[in-house]
Amino acid sequence: MASTRKSPMFASSVSRQLLIGRIFTYAALCVAVLLVLFPIYWMVITSLKLPREIYRVPSLWPQVVTFNNYRILIEDKEFFLNIRNSLIVAGSVTVISVIISSLCAYSLVRFRYRFQGLVGRLILFAYLTPTTLLFIPLSILMARLGLGNSLHGLILVYLTFSLPLSTWLLQGYFRGVPRELEEQGMIDGLSRMGALIRIVIPLSAPGIAAVAIFTFTGAWNELLLALVLITSESQRTAPLALNYLITSDVLPWGPLMAGAVLSSVPLMILYFVAQRYMVQGMTAGSVKG
Amino acid sequence: MTATPAADIPTVRPAAPHPRRRFSAATQDAIFAYGLVLPVVLLLIGLVGYPFFYAIYVSFTDRVVGNDGQWIGLANFRYLAGAPAFSSAIWNTVVLVVVTGLLKLAIGLGLALLVNQHLPGRGLFRSFLMLPWAMPAFVAYLTWRVMFQPIGGGINLVLTNTGLYPHIVDWLGQRSTAMPSVILAAVWRGFPFWFVSILAALQTIPNELYEAARVDGATAWQRFRNVTWPGIRQVVIITTLLSSIWTANSFEHVWLLTQGGPSDATMVFPVLAYFGMQTQRLGEAAAVSVAMLPVLMILVFVATSMMQNREDRD
Question: Cβ(A286)–Cβ(B307) under 8 Å?
């Protein structure tokens, strides 16, 4: 029969097409990965190069590997002080946000009441209201409260973006906890609050971890509000310290890239490890990087 | 909180055996529900709502640092309309939003379609392609600042070493290349968000639909048009809205790469507002951010209702 004679030829042309498609796919993906990795590679090797190698004889890999840039950054610029400030601010913002956002998200998911839709809308609206609009009034407000140039003030203003984000994301996770489990717990003698703490929160633990990481990185990365609010050197966060490195007259690329490595590598490792949860959270709530 | 189990009451408070009878269970739940949202709502009213309207008010005054100023009506906006930096900022913001949006869509969609095939190693590719998103924005833009340098920058080195373009270019320092450089860095940092969002949407499309289309003899384009696109359309629209809002209001990329220079070639709203604040003229600075509010509010309203609808449906 014609069709049976034809089919092997047809199959081989299909498989060749498939093979060509595969090769094209892998080639395109490899090029994309290279383009993604090259700046990261450049950041790392610039941080390991001697000044003469950065400025006079540029090359794709360092001839001499030196940790001098790190020493300059840490000893002369006291970068660990900035890291410490960043840790305090981002850590506090995360703890405060996750706790009070959990309460809010739980209420929005479990109860039906007046103004509920309004509260939900207010939260989304706050999430999308850009810092660019708020930084001027916030700086006036913080000065009036006596919280200008302090880490406390910074923690307070960072809640403007962390609270809406974490409430919005946590609602999604809490909705996934079956109501029956909670009701069962309450029959067994738990209060509402007890049901939240003993049942809902443990079951949403991966989600809460993801929210905590998003909140932490959001606060860790913030530059504009810190630039506006912090005036003294001792209160500078990591992004702020690096920002002032490039606004000085001499541009110290080596120490700058050392600072870039130190402030990003921990976060990138965190993302690689917790990637699955991060992607779920990111696509569920559309999270800005 | 008011919701301790009723069994505890006699031992804890023997003097008042029925303190909770004042409210029915439903009322108790309502009080509890309101109590839980209260901290977030109060903080957001104080830290977002009040500053939001205060910014609008300040934009109509001649406030400077140390002097509250007076109501001067539209004078700030009239002044801005005549300022060359302001018209540059409008144009550059539009260019940045549109061009980076289109590029991120094309790259994100293309890579998502490639990774969505059943290939060995796709998880690894996905992890690597997400890296720019995991990098803090300030680190990404500082790195690109170094990459673009005439001396010590990676781009010039690669171009001269491979012979593609054997001249040293000061990418960020001249008007013609500054904006394309900012766009390149913003796309590098921003495409993973599109890539991951679209990929997640692609993975929800059932395979049977593709098989059915193939059986019906649909071409690749027809399959994309009739199966793939309907499955990802909503995600693409929401991503476009969010990304436009964020790009238009993003400060770091331009600030860390060019500070709006050379001679306003890359000036955008947020950087202009920050400069206004640095010169202590708060009224004018606020007017810069408020000037973009009408367009922004439309985007925010559409995005909010779409996100809320999607959530209600889930």
Answer: yes
